[in-house]
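[step 3/7] fold_predict: job queued, chain A
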Amino acid sequence: MTREFEILKLSRLKTGSSYMRPRQVLPEHVNLSDPAITVMSDLSKVSVVVVRPNSTMDSANAKMIRYGVRMLLVLDSNDQVAGLLTATDILGEKPMRFLQNMGGTHADIMVRDIMSTQRELDVMNIDDVKNAEVGQIVATLKKFGRQHGLVVAEGVDGRQTVCGIFSITQIARQLGSQVQSFELAHTLAEIEAVVSRGQ
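[step 4/7] structure written:
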């Protein structure tokens, strides 16, 4: 005998409805000797905000503001990583240099004109990150002058998948230091001094 199932009540979706997004909760406080993974945005637990190369710089900036992020992953038409766009790219010298070289107006600048391309991106391997401490991530980002660090997992075929992101601003927050002072620190010893003053 086939069981009859009761039908659920349906209603209309209301105007202005949003949708749930995955959210990773990072520890509020860490120290430099904690596991690096405690300060990494894990892309299996949280969505990264993306943009296309042919989007305007202004729309990318609006997207950063809307989502409260300072970095967008740039994806090509095949959803492969084409580059990275940061708030520094938008608010720094790149737009002015582009206009001086190419002409036009601010509204003409596209993401592809100011982003860091895939060929320019250095990445960390997740296997190394799993065995690293927060201080090592900070030292690495500072040595290479990066605000963000991408983490990749590598398949047996050698193909890489971006699986995590480090943000120097987020790490500073978790360390309990003032972000401005933290970003000015150039060596691990200076960073440790900033952190100890902030606690």
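[step 5/7] annotate
The chain has a mean pLDDT of 87.
The domain at 36-198 is CATH 3.10.580.10 (CBS-domain).
exit 0
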